[in-house]
Amino acid sequence: xxxxxxxxxxxxxxxxxxxxxxxxxxxxxxxxxxxxxxxxxxxxxxxxxxxxxxxxxxxxxxxxxxxxxxxxxxxxxxxxxxxxxxxxxxxxxxxxxxxxxxxxxxxxxxxxxxxxxxxxxxxxxxxxxxxxxxxxxxxxxxxxxxxxxxxxxxxxxxxxxxxxxxxxxxxxxxxxxxxxxxxxxxxxxxxxxxxxxxxxxxxxxxxxxxxxxxxxxxxxxxxxxxxxxxxxxxxxxxxxxxxxxxxxxxxxxxxxxxxxxxxxxxxxxxxxxxxxxxxxxxxxxxxxxxxxxxxxxxxxxxxxxxxxxxxxxxxxxxxxxxxxxxxxxxxxxxxxxxxxxxxxxxxxxxxxxxxxxxxxxxxxxxxxxxxxxxxxxxxxxxxxxxxxxxxxxxxxxxxxxxxxxxxxxxxxxxxxxxxxxxxxxxxxxxxxxxxxxxxxxxxxxxxxxxxxxxxxxxxxxxxxxxxxxxxxxxxxxxxxxxxxxxxxxxxxxxxxxxxxxxxxxxxxxxxxxxxxxxxxxxxxxxxxxxxxxxxxxxxxxxxxxxxxxxxxxxxxxxxxxxxxxxxxxxxxxxxxxxxxxxxxxxxxxxxxxxxxxxxxxxxxxxxxxxxxxxxxxxxxxxxxxxxxxxxxxxxxxxx
Length: 639
Fold this sequence. Notes:
Helix content: 10-25%
Low-confidence stretches: 1-24, 123-127
Strand content: 35-45%
């Protein structure tokens, strides 16, 4: 009797679910029938899209995609997305495409055997089992339309693709539907943003949820605007339980999720042998405190290992063994972070394997979505009441320094007690200093000579710390490009000082520049600031800008210039000192003449924050003023 009830329940479930797996056939493939509101100025338009994630079978994710896209130019090719990924724990059961001409007539049918099948990893990856099948089609004319179908099956349910009915700029969407099917015992959780601003509907039952979007017009990328996923509809789905290549996982809260990661992915890889542990203990035995010991161990790692990607073991999330890193002297971010943690543990220093998003846009983990997230691993070292984060993949990064790739974002500490949310190091405005000091002599021929010194701190340090790896020619070429406001520049006696303890990079050099000053009869016209902003620094103009603008990091850019004037010459008149203060930035310039010396100081500060679209024109005008004031010219007259 119980068996009959079970069969009846299963039949009812299939009756509810199966209709969702049949793709709509009522699609017009002619580009001429696309609504002009969607296609006007667009690179592409999604005519019809149906994506179904079926998790009704325990431990299995079946993904079905039906996608029809009209492409109007070469830029729109990235919206076709006619590909499917697979690995040793997943398969592509179906993949095909059809190409249609302008009128919707079928031109070419591409079967599974005709798709390119290649490795899905870069040349920097030592080993990975990820592969991708993709449509290799070269258009002979535009517009054309692509119909694409794929069906895949995976033993990993930890990563559910997010839904964005508009996934690129300059693309419109006529119809897009996203369906998630699941057992009622496994409750679907979701996070959605910006749905209410567009024509998006949601239908929900105990076993499925369907999101449908219609008639979304294209938007354009704008200077310093929020990322596309912060402006357009987006849905992310997750469950409290999941499978990672057959390994069951728990994600109800961050503590339990972090505990699962520690137990299943991290701890059993930290298998250093007795000889290595003894070596570490010998290295640190006479050092005065835990920070000194941690610094010595970090330096040991930097001297010994190099980064190389290794995407194996439970979906690329499980580090390779510490003993293998010790033996082979290489590893990826996971392996090197876990290896460094093993060495620190041998010295009695507590540290935390840390998951985060590595990117220059300061993307944080979504702390209200407990699920597999992140694309990078670092290490957090507990030193007293504070945590110093280490980038274990770099052989140049100083101890505790977080550059643009990892600074100021929410991360997950994986500890033996469970997961803990934390935030990486933030560099405040005054920390982010780029200071250029110049001492020049201007001679009676208008030639310039002297020295330039540049100091870089905070986020500016990351752009300098590899300068000492350049050869002499490349280094000189770098400065010719960097200081291109000085015509006929020649540099010599370059000195680089990389203070890894203070995280301060200083560059000193001597320079000569013939004909720097322009001759006007017996007088000269000079640009007082050879490091001036150019017109390229002015943000673009928009007739009708749509988005707010963001300054991701507060910074200070300071320039100090001293010029010894030729004998028997003086400045005709000095500009007035000026100071401009806006909510998003400030600018200050001062001028002084004393005993034949011209002194100029300029400070530009940018204030971190998100600013309303209504302030953008003022922001642009501010930069226009900066460029004008930076380009100030002075008349040097003969007495």
